[in-house]
Specification:
alpha/beta; three-stranded parallel β-sheet; two-stranded antiparallel sheet; about 40% helix
């Protein structure tokens, strides 16, 4: 499914005149970026700051299990994910700090061109909140970012402007099902 989504993304955006394409170092982000980069004739630039949220001790565990086995910490985190980190993991504020640094680097390198950034749902949701000044505690409840959805942020003299949020029109209907928010 992921490969089909990546191909659909490439079909729609592969001919866009990208100045650069950046991705998280995780395989699923690199695999998503690769077909678009190939069609655009570009190499994917890897940026560690675009990686997925670190869940620490909770990595790979279903939320229901964490809530059952680590209830106090889970409820503290789920109430304030912008400021409370999973044990050994990172908070929304930590994600915002590292992603905003990457955005600054990208803007310095490509001030006049369009750049494709391929990352992960939680990471992108936090980044959008940070860019827009939305309370980081709300990244899970106010910003939707389904798998392989496209959001467009334009830079204006007044700051970042979200022009498109979570667009899935490049995906065939069967691939729009599920994918989380």
């Amino acid at each position: 499914t992921g490969r089909k989504m990546a191909e659909a993304l490439a079909e729609k955006y592969g001919t866009h005149p990208w100045a650069a394409i950046y991705a998280s170092p995780l395989e699923r982000a690199l695999s998503t970026a690769a077909p678009t980069a190939a069609r655009a004739g570009l190499e994917v630039r890897v940026e560690a700051g675009l990686r997925e949220i670190a869940y620490g001790e909770w990595e790979g565990k279903p939320e229901a299990e964490i809530e059952r086995t680590d209830s106090v910490r889970f409820h503290a985190w789920s109430s304030h994910p912008g400021w409370v980190a999973p044990p050994g993991g990172e908070s929304g504020a930590a994600i915002a700090e590292r992603t905003l640094a990457v955005v600054g680097l990208i803007r310095d390198r490509h001030a006049d061109g369009d750049v494709l950034v391929v990352s992960h749902k939680a990471t992108l949701r936090v980044l959008l909140c940070a860019l827009l000044g939305v309370d980081l505690d709300l990244f899970r409840s106010r910003i939707a970012q389904k798998v392989c959805a496209v959001s467009v942020v334009a830079w204006r003299p007044s700051g970042p402007l979200v022009e498109v949020l979570g667009d899935e029109s490049h995906l065939p209907p069967a691939l729009r099902e599920g994918g989380g928010t």
